[in-house]
Each structure stands twice: as structure tokens, then as C-alpha cells.
Amino acid sequence: MANPLLEYKCPCCGGAIAFDATLQKLKCPYCDTEFDAETLKSYDEELKSTPAEDEMRWDTAAGAQWSEGEEGALCTYVCNSCGGQIVADENTAATKCPFCDNPVVLTGRLAGTLKPDFVIPFKLDKKAAKEGLRKHLTGKKLLPKVFKEENHIDEIRGVYVPFWLFDADAEANVRYRATRIRTWSDSNYNYTETQHYSVTRAGTVGFERVPVDGSTKMADDLMESIEPFDFSQALDFQTAYLAGYLADKYDVDAENSVDRANARIKRSTEETFASTVRGYATVTPQNSNIRLNNGQAKYALYPVWILNTTWQDQKYTFAMNGQTGKFVGNLPLDKGALCKWLFGLTAAIGTGAFAILSLIHFFL
Amino acid sequence: MKKILVILLTLTLILCVSLSISASAMDAAPTQLIDEVGVLEPDESSELEEALYALQQRKNGTLLVIAFTDDLIQESEAEGKAFSLFKSHTYGTESGVIFYVSVNARKWNIQGIGPMYDLLNADAMDLLEERCIPCLEQNRFADAATEFVSTLEEILDATADGTEYKAPLPWAQYLIGALIAGLIVAGISVFVMASQLKSVRPQTAARNYMKPNSLNLTVSRDLFLYRTVTRTPRPKSNSSSGGRGSSGGGSRSGSF
């Protein structure tokens, strides 16, 4: 249970500092001093070497509060700034103190084999996430009008979501049945000639950094909906980027994530090879054999804004790509508006069509 | 004197006889209902003759002829047969309409003669065919003839002011068709609107993560296996489908 707790203290005023997505630097909210991530890296190391006296107290407190089953899932820490207790689950890697709101990083969750290889820092801030939600709700004719008025944002969280990135070379051998059709006529008959072919395509195609969500807390389809991330902006992992945001370590390992990557790679490989079969009227896959070579998995943290809203006692979760701003989230359907639009459009289009038919009837 | 009187009486007699013959020739009414096969009952025949005559009177002498014959003819011969039948039974009348039915060959022709050829345009022919031919198909010859008379009267009424006959607007069909079209378009539009509310969709492929220019085809083989040829008869453009007639105006023939 001895997880080191990391807070980035401002070397100037001692206040807790956080990563600023706009500046792409760490910034002290108290004295506005800005720091490079590299500069803070050495500061981070100093903090790590500081003896953590609090560890003894954590064990005592936890044993008294939680049952045996819960003890493994929940951990308590003491905030270095205010001394308040921080309760987090076993996967939390970065959070905020509920008392003083200071950002803290639980470095033990990101150490050793758990250390991410890459991180894409947040490019968009909380304001952009709110604006993203506003735009997301605009122009939806079947969205209940009161949804925009009555719903309120319960919370906005900037979360570094753990992703497994899979690299692989796909070696494929695919066989298709294809046909070419020629038609002609004489005075009595129409003729159709069908030429049948066996088409074989084999070769390789490479994939890099196919992402698979490594956190069970995040819905897979929600995370896949905000793809793609621009990996060219990824950096070697530093805990400094996590300051001010929430972060989870993975709880689905690479071995258990690989099936999802395989399915996506297989599909794209088949589509790519099928696109090379041209000049036929029909192309039907008969047999495909796909092998993956040089498979590698990397661990990365990707920036995601999560917004939760409540409307009519129902929770709606939205996600925004913290790098590109792509915003997704399912919205409720106004059945009354649906009926109005359906019948209104039917009447309007029907009337127009009737008028056109009548004009054609009378003038042609 | 007596000789002169005999000559005068003879001339008077000759004059009376010739006038009588001329008058009887002038009064010879054209035959408007011809039933060589006997498909009409006597009372049906008399009713039809009355109706034909009454219509002729009302429509300034427009002559209508209905003929049920036992001619064994082809469909292409129906028009010529009908025309010659009209001429032979109407003593050269220049204007009229004939509804010719060959009961044995099951062929029919409706034809306008003279000015009536232009009056019976495609719309008018469509209406006549739509009302009369179904009766023929069910061997209800008297009903077919009655429908012919009433429909033709309707057409003549509609064209009394010299305008071209225009089929009445099929309100119900157009309205139902327009509403169905509207419902389909509206359904597609509403589906698109509803789909805007759903933006969470799993990714099924990894195309975004394919290495640029990494596709390397080592085998690209297209092997011809065999060929098949199927042939289907070409539809004959001059044959009427389902016994219906051609679509033009003036004259129309068909089978039933």
C-alpha cells in the first residue's frame, strides 16, 4: 500500500501547480509562474527521493476503515498540502485532493511495468469541452428543447485514459470469386455472358499504433468514437503532464486487448486487398488467411474530456478528444418532435408532389 | 287526245314510281348494331339500338356502330375489317365511331371515322378500353356495348366545345401516390435527423492506422475459370400484353 504521492509544488510560492493545455507548460495558479515539463522532471525526482513519513499512517487508517474485500480496491493517501485524506481506487493514477483541490499524481501506479511509454498532452482545456458540448447540442432538430435548458453538467473531468497501441505487419493471402458480365442482343434474343474468375491477392500491409482502450471504466465504443488521435504529437511519458488531470492505470492488460486490435486489423486488411481487385462486376471473398508478424504493444495515455449530464433522472455521458476536439455522446430523442416532423414533412412533400402530378397531367 | 292522255298518265306513273324508289333509298337507315354471332338477347339488342339511335340524334348525327362478328382474323386485320364494315353498313357515311368485336377470334377494334378519328385521342381511347374491354374478357358483350355507348357519350359531351378530350384527374391515385412519396422522403429525412443524435459508434476497422505506402502485393493472379451464356427472348414491341391494345389515338385494336 505504499504508493508514493506526488504533488508538483511551485518552486516560487509552494502552491500546487498543474499542466496548462493552452500553454503546453506547467503553471502555478497562485503566482502565474510557468515551468517546462523537463524542468519539473528533476523536481519530480527530488520529490520521489523525499522520505514519505505518511506511509505508516496510511496502513493504520485503511485497516480500521475498510473490510478485507474493499481494502484491496480502495486506497487512502494523505495530501501533502493540507493533510486531508484522499481516497482512490486501485487504478487511479492522478487525481485531486477533495479538500484543497491540489492535483496529485500517484506515481506508484505509473512505475515499473506500469509506466506508460507515451503520453499525448491535453491540447484543449475545460472551456473548450464546454463549448464542444454546446455545439454538440446545436442543430439537432429531434433533441428535446428542454434538454438544453434543463440539463446541467454534473462534472467535467480531464482524464488521461490508458490505451494499448498495437503495431503489426499483416501478411495476407486472400482468394476471391469474381465475374465479368457482357451483354448483347440480336433480333430475337438478349444474351448475357458471365466470365468467372478465381482472383488471388497476397502480400503485406503494415499497421502502427492501433489503439485499444485499456480501462474498464471507459466504454470501449465511447473511446473508439473519439478516434483518431494524432500520434505525431505524442511525447515520452512524464508524470508532469498528469498534474491537474485525472488518470487511470490500465486494468485490461495487452494480452486481453489484442483480440480487439486483431479484429480491426483483419477487417482493414481484407478491405485493402479487396480494393486491389478491379474491373469485375462482382467480387466475393472465398477464403482469407491473415497472419500478423512483428506484433508489438505500447502503453500510452491519451487525453479525454468526460462530461456527465443528467436529464429526467437519466445520466448522459459525453466524451471529447482532448487533442482534436472531436465530441461524441448519444442524446435523447423527442418522440413528439419526431411525429411532428414525420407527418409535417409527409404532408408538405405530399402536397407538393400532388401539385406537380396535377400540373403534369394537365399540361402534358 | 286519248293517246295524249295515256302518255301523260304513263309519265305520271313513271314519275311517281321513280320518286317512290328514290324516297325509299333516301330513307334507308344505316345499320348501327350488327350481331352476326347472336351474343345479344333480343331485348338487349332493342335497348342498344334505341340507345345508339338516341345518341345519334343528340349528337348531331354522329353515327355509332357496334358489331359482333364471327370473323376469323388477326389483330392486325381488325382495323381494316372494322373500317370496311362501317362503310358497308352506313352507306358511305363520313363520320362516326365503330366498336368492332370478332367474337370467334377474340379481337377488338375501336375506331373513329372521319372527324371522329381525331376526336378519339389517346386519353379517350384509354377510357373506352378501360371500361369496355374488361366486359369482353368476361364475355359480357351486352355490357361492353352499353359501356361503349355511355362512355362515348361522356367523351362527346366533354368535347362538345371543340376542346381535346382530357382524361379526368385521377385524384385518389395521385393523392395516395403523392402521400406515399411524401412518407418515404419524410421517413428518410427523419431517420437522418434521428441518426444525428447517435454519435457513439464502435470502430470496426483500422484504416486510420495503416502505415502509408506499406501495401506490398506479392501475388496478384486473376485466373479465368469458365464462361456461361444465357439468352432470353426479346419482348416484341408490337404485341399487346395481356390482350390490351396499342396506346395511340384514332384507332386501337387488341385481344381479349
Main beta sheet of chain A: strand number and arrangement? Answer: 11 strands, mixed
Average pLDDT number of chain A: 82
For the largest interface, the chains and their residue counts are: A-B, 78 and 54 residues
Distance between the termini of chain B: 74 Å
Low-confidence stretches of chain B: 16-27, 238-244
Query: Helix-strand pattern of chain B, N to C?
Result: HEHEHEEHHHHEE
Q: What is the share of helical residues of chain A?
A: 25-40%
Gyration radius of chain A, rounded: 28 Å
Write down how many β-strands of chain B occur, each being a DSSP E stretch of 2 or more residues. Answer: 6
- Work out the radius of gyration of chain B: 33 Å
Main β-sheet description of chain B = 5 strands, mixed
Class by alpha and beta content of chain B: alpha/beta
Overview in brief:
The complex is a heterodimer of chains A (364) and B (256). With 364 residues, chain A is α+β, with helices and mostly antiparallel strands.
